[in-house]
Amino acid sequence: MPIYIALTNLSAEGRKAITEDPARIKANNRQIEAMGVKILAQYATLGQYDFINIFEAPSDDVIFKVAVSLSGKGVGQAQTLVAKTIDDFIATTKK
Predict the structure, then answer these.
(1) Which residues contact residue 79 at a Cβ distance below 8 angstroms, ignoring those fewer than 6 apart?
(2) Predicted structure pTM score
(3) Domains of the chain, with CATH numbers?
(4) Residue among 10, 35, 30 nearest 20 (CA)
(5) 4-18, 23-37, 50-64, 72-86: which range is least confident on average?
(6) Would you give the distance in Å from CA 56 to the centre of its chain?
(7) What string of DSSP letters covers 11-80?
């Protein structure tokens, strides 16, 4: 399955919501997983992005659905990248 990396910045509303209820992150995770996405890793970060999330999903369409769902909540903005393992990258370039 394709791998996606989401670089996320919280909005002011998102920061407030997480400050008031940090467990909300886990609730969002359950909603994401219910859409068919496997969460491989999540990190809270300092610097340019607030969170880095690594997902596995069956298709770009599913990731679009997740992105629309989360952005509709006003939690923040995400930049989503499609990723390949190095082995897959090498195999692709040999074709």
Answers:
(1) 6, 7, 8
(2) 0.86
(3) 3-94 (3.30.70.1060)
(4) 10
(5) 72-86
(6) 9
(7) -HHHHHHHHH-TTHHHHHHHHHHHTT-EEEEEEE-SSS-SEEEEEE-S-HHHHHHHHHHHHHTTSEEEEE
